[in-house]
Write a structure and sequence with these properties.
- It contains five helices and 18 strands.
- It is of the alpha+beta class.
- The chain folds into three domains: 153 residues, Jelly Rolls (Sandwich), CATH 2.60.120; 42 residues, no CATH class; 34 residues, no CATH class.
Length: 251
């Protein structure tokens, strides 16, 4: 798919007060879940993840091919974790009222006009020193990637089990189409933790670092199929709010 804009951004669309409120809500929720014995480790389905396996190889800023060359193909599948972060999900209406219009505006201003009609729970993410999210995309675009209703005792095959959902019904039969990340920090709060896009082989710069969202309260909006990563944080703590909007598979 050829796009004039591979991503779109708006600077400082949230106030410092709004950003701090989201940070406080997220940290309170993480603390509550951990006090209940729940894990807040970020999980990436269909990939080995830290905290859920005995994985001991950090993908970090490496590509899968670099890990494969260094450790072998088996290690990629069994020992490599692509994500190390802490997350929780926020379902506050006032947050949807802020984020949904921004994504719709970006969808229009970028010229995509993707058919989206529902937003998933908003993800609050914490990256401390050494934590990262390796190269990945947020979802597929065809019918094989749709969210499916879970029916006890019924399986469609292992590759589909990870996309089984009981509710909400607004997800069923749809795929992630637009992703968004809001930076909640002041620029000097952390080093590293850079959002990077893989622009492919036919651009002047294959790996593009998105510096536009460094100002606090800035948002970047991009197609969910675009490969991206968050490089390891080297100092401080990075806080972000992530959103996904969904719609019927591309036709």
């Amino acid at each position: 798919m050829q796009l004039k804009y591979s991503y779109y951004h708006y600077k400082k669309v949230l106030t410092p007060e709004q950003c701090q409120k989201i940070i406080d809500l997220g940290l309170d929720q993480i603390k509550k879940e951990e006090s209940q014995g729940k894990s807040t480790s970020g999980i990436t389905f269909a990939n080995t993840h830290k905290g859920g396996t005995e994985a001991d190889i950090s993908l970090g800023s490496k590509t899968i091919q670099e890990v494969k060359t260094e450790y072998g193909e088996k290690a990629v599948k069994e020992r490599t974790f692509v994500r190390d972060s802490n997350v929780t999900f926020l379902d506050h209406k006032e947050l949807y009222d802020i984020v949904w219009p921004l994504i719709n505006k970006g969808n229009y201003d970028a010229g995509w006009n993707f058919d989206v009609d529902y937003m998933e729970s908003l993800q609050f993410t914490v990256y401390k020193p050494g934590q990262f999210y390796g190269w990945h995309s947020d979802g597929g675009s065809d019918k094989w990637s749709t969210y499916k209703k879970y029916i006890p005792g019924v399986r469609k095959g292992k590759e589909n089990e990870l996309n089984q959902y009981v509710e909400p019904a607004g997800l069923i039969g749809k795929v992630r189409k637009i992703s968004a990340t809001i930076n909640l920090n002041l620029p000097g709060d952390y080093d590293g933790g850079n959002l990077k896009f893989d622009m492919g082989d036919h651009t002047t710069e294959k790996y593009l670092e998105v510096t536009e969202i460094r100002p606090q309260g800035s948002i970047v909006i991009f197609p969910s199929f675009l490969k991206h990563q968050v490089t390891p944080v080297t100092r401080g703590t990075r806080y972000s709010l992530v959103a996904w909007t969904v719609g019927r598979p591309f036709r």
